[in-house]
Amino acid sequence: MSSDEDVAAASRQTHFIGKKENIIQDRRVVKSVGERDVLVIYHQGDFYAIDVRCYHSGGPLQEGDIEVSCCECPWHKYKITLAEGESLYQAVDPSVKPLKPTWCSKGVKQRVHTVTLSNEDVNSFLKDWSGDLRAGGMLKNSKCR
Ligand code: FES
């Protein structure tokens, strides 16, 4: 089976991530699912699942700070929304004084996945992002050239 077929097959299945109480206690867990490493985060009463490697250049999001509803990548400080994988940045319009930064979006960049709860278990469906070139999440075996 090719890598694309593996990813597609994994996306059709539910994958056990861990026990709910353990993830709540640890706040985050990384689990290999198919060919992806998925980061599941417990934040303010909700579970989120995103690829563990940052879309920008592969930073380890499991080490990122969680602020409001975003994960801040520890490498270049990009902010990624936990629910949608949207990349956010602050911009300043130099023609407006006093200068005031405002939040802007680069669009959805990071792969996010669906989290489901079953009794005391936390599970995840991988979302099938095949064909979406903006979905730059890195496969765990990707290497820089
Ligand atoms: S690798 Fe994450 S912001 Fe650059």
UniProtKB/TrEMBL annotation:
InterPro entries with a match to the protein in the record: Rieske_2Fe-2S, Rieske_2Fe-2S_sf, Sol_Rieske_ferrdox_dom
GO MF, one example: metal ion binding
A Pfam family that the UniProt record links to this protein: Rieske_4
Entry keywords, A to Z: 2Fe-2S, Iron, Iron-sulfur, Metal-binding
Taxonomic superkingdom: Eukaryota
Record-annotated Rieske domain positions: 14-101
PANTHER family found in the cross-reference section: FERREDOXIN-RELATED, RIESKE DOMAIN-CONTAINING PROTEIN-LIKE
Record-given protein name: Rieske domain-containing protein
Organism, scientific name: Sinocyclocheilus grahami
Biological classification of the source: Eukaryota, Metazoa, Chordata, Craniata, Vertebrata
